[in-house]
Design brief:
Layout: H1 22-37, H2 42-58, H3 64-84
């Protein structure tokens, strides 16, 4: 499937608006929280989160800006949760 802007997508577009990338938001949030509570997981969760973020762009499902916004929100939520709890 090629969208109207000429980007080759790995799947049909789910909806018109894609900001933020929910997959990236959750992956970054998970990586931060797991690293905080179980530091030995850092070498596993960081590559996982980066691969999730990269896959959203490489599959043509998100623009890089969508992924950056998702990562920022995920990081903010994780840090807020860690701070409050």
């Amino acid at each position: 499937y090629t969208n109207p802007r000429g980007i080759l997508c790995g799947a049909a577009q789910l909806h018109r608006y894609s900001v933020p990338s929910g997959h990236t938001l959750h992956a970054i949030s998970l990586a931060i929280m797991m690293s905080h509570f179980e530091p030995l997981m850092l070498p596993v969760v960081v590559p996982f989160a980066l691969l999730v973020a990269a896959s959203r762009v490489s599959l043509g499902l998100h623009y890089p800006s969508d992924v950056i916004v998702g990562a920022a929100i995920g990081a903010a939520l994780a840090m807020t949760s860690i701070t409050l709890f």
